[in-house]
Amino acid sequence: MSIAPSSPVTGGAQTSFTSPTYTLVSDNAAPNANSVQWAVSAIGGTQAGVTTHTVSSPFTLTVERPANFRLLGTPNPVTGVISNVPYNIYKIRVRKGVTPASGQSPRVALAELFLKIPAGADSYDAANIKAMCSLAIGSIWAESADVGQAMQDGLI
């Protein structure tokens, strides 16, 4: 995988955070052989109450590729139609330990992004895959504060 975020990562805007940054360290204990993982070792900017990674309260970024890449099948010899197009699924996860109430042990909050790519499109239509990724990541970046606020008030 060629994914290697520059550290520190500049976080998206959030209400009451000022210039949030996250220093990442490589975690050699990724969940599986098809994953790469980083842990947040330090935070920057003003982020009152935010904690870094610990065993009992994780703060990690994980990127996972498919264990077995699926390939595009052959067209029907009569119709020319490929009826079964499999998907290759990539996953991006952020785990963050959060405390549900005073005096309670941390629980893990989870943000997941799944990228489901039809087999063959990686070769035939790479530009549109890149456009999809660009919009998804850009819109999440642009709406970071609103997404964070929605987790508090439930309004979308």
Short description:
The chain has 156 residues and is an alpha+beta fold.
Say how many strands there are.
6
Mean pLDDT figure: 90
What's the CATH architecture name? Beta Barrel
Strand order of the largest sheet: 1-2-3-4-5-6
Main sheet characteristics: 6 strands, antiparallel
Whole-number tally of structural domains: 1
Give unreliable regions as ranges.
none
Cα distance spanning the termini: 34 Å
Describe the structure.
Helices cover 20% and strands 35% of the residues. With 156 residues, the chain is α+β, with helices and mostly antiparallel strands. The chain has one domain: Beta Barrel (Porin). The chain has a six-stranded antiparallel beta sheet, with no helix packed on it. Strand 5 (87-98) and strand 6 form a beta hairpin. The longest helix is centred in the C-terminal third of the chain and has 17 residues, at 126-142. The chain is elongated. It starts with 8 loop residues before the first strand and ends with a helix.
